[in-house]
Design a protein that fits this description.
heterodimer, A: alpha+beta, four-stranded antiparallel β-sheet, B: 418 residues
Chain lengths: 113, 418
């Protein structure tokens, strides 16, 4: 079964507006979603940090990342199993992150040696 | 997949811990650094929501939140350097209080921290509106949007009120200490008022989709029990807790599946919360052990009559009216007078109720209170004065009220217009 990665972007502002109670309810929804059978794994990423390395002539430039032109940072990711993109999207439409930020879905390439 | 052994999230964990963390850190840092304590608590919640969904819940979620907030506070003091060279002292204070974050001794000291916070929020130098808003924010963990909904106000207004209150705390150096014996009496009374305002704010929300905000009520009940369990406990504190528990017990029956209002007499008593009723009666028993009779006692007595009636036809209205008469002597609240008029109708009929309502018509405090014209409409309809009843219900609909109440009033209006 192909695997897909859900990249969860957000700028954190939406979270800051929630009261503790509302935050907790959101977390409960995430945890429930995380326990769905098609979810293989996932991890959070440390917020507000990151580095972007770019070639700059013969040199490289290192900037504080994530891509500074985008206010949204990646908060974490899930890996899920789905038959194809259509199914991956269908399975993800109720992901609680939607509304707090964007969810990018990318298929994990299968490498046949 | 969730790791085995990972505990399920506890109910209201974030709300409760947020208040406790703010109280704990403010206790260590002093009230001048309230904002830092709040920021640290919020940061702990934010980190939780951004890691738990992926990594799972840590084995001791409360301790995790406390530790995260504590680390944030320390690194924030180190980073900022704005505290006039007092950073070392603040860090020492933070570190001194860090040891047994969640063992049994700490539980007691955390309760004391929270109590001190409640008493500071109710400092007489703060106006009552600010006292309630601050208590809701700092102790109850409510957002300014939620507080705005409770007060039927704008979030920006609430934010301003909170900023002003916190500035006053800083400038006047209001300490996070329990009031001295001489001031204790007065302060306990304002704490009780704040708790009750919080409770009624949830019990009868002023606007919005929901008729009631059970979480606000339960938070008020928790605070009441906190005060009752402390050395500040007094019979009138027990009476207030009894009142809130008995009223909260009826919350599940006050609305139907569509969120519409269900009148007391039509409520399904099977939906009443037996545990809360038991708690209410045990506090009521404690409250009448002494010889003090406060207005909370009388109100709790009224609630206990409702709660102990086997059915709506067996409510002892005569006793309730006696209690209302007693309450009238103790307070000059127009809201009490209004409620009394409803009971007068039960005991002496609609004509007497109308007479009881008459002096309230010109009362300033009730001008925009929808329950006055709604009650007038109810009484007038019973007297067959339908034209006037319709006008009264229409006037009630002009006032601010919740959507379920609006629907209720519209239904009443439709019934008498047929």
């Amino acid at each position: 079964m192909p695997q897909y990665v859900l990249l969860l972007h957000s700028n954190g502002e939406a979270w800051k507006k929630l009261s503790p109670e509302e935050m907790q309810k959101k977390v409960e929804k995430y945890l429930a979603w995380r326990n769905k059978p098609f979810v293989v794994g996932g991890a959070g990423l440390v917020r507000d940090t990151g580095r972007v390395i770019r070639a700059k002539g013969d040199d490289v430039s290192v900037t504080e990342g994530p891509f500074s032109e985008s206010a949204e940072v990646m908060g974490g990711f899930y890996t899920i199993e789905a038959a194809d993109y259509d199914e991956a999207v269908k399975l993800s439409l109720d992901n609680p992150h939607i509304g707090l930020g964007t969810v990018e879905i990318r298929q994990v390439m299968v490498y046949n040696a | 997949m969730q790791e085995s052994g990972s505990p399920v999230l506890l109910e209201h964990l974030f709300r409760r811990e947020s208040g406790r963390i703010v109280a704990w850190l403010a206790g260590l840092l002093g009230s001048a650094h309230l904002q830092l304590a709040e920021d640290a608590a919020q940061e702990a919640m934010l980190r939780a929501v951004q890691t738990w969904p992926f990594q799972g819940i840590p084995p001791k979620p409360e301790a995790w939140l406390f530790r995260t907030a504590h680390n944030y506070a320390i690194s924030s003091v180190r980073r900022s350097g704005v505290f006039n060279g007092k950073a070392d002292a603040l860090i020492a204070a933070l570190e001194s209080g860090a040891q047994p974050i969640l063992d049994l001794d700490a539980e007691q000291s955390l309760r004391d921290d929270e109590l001190r916070m409640v008493f500071m929020c109710c400092h007489p130098k703060l106006v009552p509106d600010a006292q309630v808003a601050l208590s809701l924010k700092l102790v109850g963990g409510f957002s300014k949007e939620e507080i705005a909904r409770i007060f039927f106000s704008e979030p920006a207004t609430i934010a301003q009120r909170l900023v002003r209150a916190k500035r006053l705390i800083r400038e006047q150096k209001l300490a996070l200490t329990m009031p001295s014996n001489g001031q204790l009496e007065q302060r306990v009374n304002s704490v009780l008022k704040v708790i009750y305002l919080m409770f009624s704010g949830g019990y009868a929300a002023h606007a919005g989709e929901d008729l009631i905000r059970a979480d606000v009520c339960l938070e008020a009940l928790r605070l009441g029990r906190l005060v009752a369990s402390s050395s500040m406990g007094a019979p009138r504190v027990d009476a207030l807790v009894a009142l809130m528990a008995l009223q909260a017990a009826r919350l599940p029956a006050r609305t139907d599946a569509a969120g519409d209002l269900v009148l007391l007499e039509e409520q399904d008593r099977n939906l009443w919360d037996d545990e809360l009723i038991a708690i209410g009666f045990s506090y009521f028993d404690r409250s009448i052990a002494g010889d003090e009779i406060s207005e909370w006692h009388v109100q709790a007595a009224i609630a206990s009559i409702y709660a102990s009636a086997a059915s709506s036809t067996e409510i002892d209205w005569v006793s309730i009216l006696e209690h209302y008469d007693q309450l009238m002597e103790m307070t000059d609240s127009p809201v009490v007078a209004l409620n009394r008029a409803v009971v007068v109708m039960k005991v002496h009929g609609a004509e007497a109720a109308l007479a009881a309502l008459t002096p309230l018509a010109g009362n300033n405090a009730l001008q925009k209170y929808h329950l006055l014209p709604a009650t007038q409409g109810h009484v007038l309809a019973a007297l067959g004065r339908l034209e006037e009843a319709r006008a009264a219900f229409s006037a009630a609909l002009e006032c601010d009220c919740t959507l379920p109440e609006k629907r209720f009033l519209q239904r009443r209006l439709a019934t008498i217009s047929m």
